[in-house]
Write a structure and sequence with these properties.
This protein has 2 domains: 4-29 and 110-187, Topoisomerase I, Chain A, domain 4 (Orthogonal Bundle); 38-105, Gyrase A, domain 2 (2-Layer Sandwich), CATH 3.30.1360.40. The longest helix has 38 residues, at 111-148. The strands form 2 sheets. A 4-stranded antiparallel beta sheet has the order 3-4-6-5. Strands 1-2 form a two-stranded antiparallel ribbon. The protein contains 5 helices and 6 strands; from the N terminus they run αββαββαββαα. It has helices at residues 4-29, 55-58, 79-88, 111-148, 154-187, and strands at 45-48, 51-54, 59-65, 68-73, 95-97, 102-105. The chain is of the alpha+beta class. It is elongated. β1 and β2 (51-54) form a beta hairpin. The protein is 59% helix and 15% strand.
């Protein structure tokens, strides 16, 4: 039976692993996969009175239809800055405006771009797995230190290590599932 100290170590390791998965899922949302998705602008920043701010913080981003993104800045003087930021971000589309709203038509993905996105997604998945394995390693080291400091027994240490390994396996499998789902999404024409 795990002691309170061991449970805290296992719980902290699990929390780090969950954070890695959450970060991966947020990162994958920014990939442009042929349909309009407002979150693609989350990492595109605009100079807002001397401070870089993501587009969703200075404008309303909507999807009037499946292939169009509409950006309505809260201040008209930002239209030029937002257009320039979108072009500089190299997202693969050209913004146009009517003086009030910026529209971006999302082009269909080429086969080459799809392959690049899949590679990028897999690399992000591998990075998440590295973070998960590092969290496992840190948790195991903490259990060993606690055992050496005599705050937990050797049996509890081994039980904690087994628990951390089970959590690691579960989270690595979750990363694989997230990447597989994104790959399917990218390949869907």
């Amino acid at each position: 039976m795990l002691t309170e100290d061991a449970k805290k170590i296992v719980s902290a390791s699990n929390a780090k692993m969950q954070d890695a998965i959450a970060f991966l899922e947020e990162d994958l949302k920014t990939y442009r996969v042929g349909k309009a998705n407002p979150s693609i602008f989350n990492n595109v920043t605009v100079d807002y009175y001397g401070t870089p701010a993501p587009i969703p913080q200075v404008a309303s981003v909507t999807t009037p239809d499946a292939k169009t993104l509409a950006i309505q800045p809260w201040e008209r003087n930002l239209i030029g800055k937002i257009e320039k930021a979108i072009l500089d971000a190299n997202l693969g589309f050209t913004p146009s405006n009517n003086g009030e709203v910026i529209r971006c038509v999302v082009p269909a993905l080429t086969e080459e771009r799809r392959k690049d996105l899949i590679k990028k997604a897999k690399a992000a998945g591998e990075n998440a797995k590295v973070v998960i394995r590092n969290a496992r390693r840190d948790g195991v080291e903490q259990l060993k230190k606690a055992q050496k400091a005599s705050t937990i027994t050797e049996d509890v240490q081994h039980e904690g290590e087994d628990e951390i390994q089970k959590i690691t396996d579960k989270n690595v499998k979750k990363v694989d599932e997230v990447i597989a789902a994104k790959e399917k999404d990218i390949l869907t024409v």
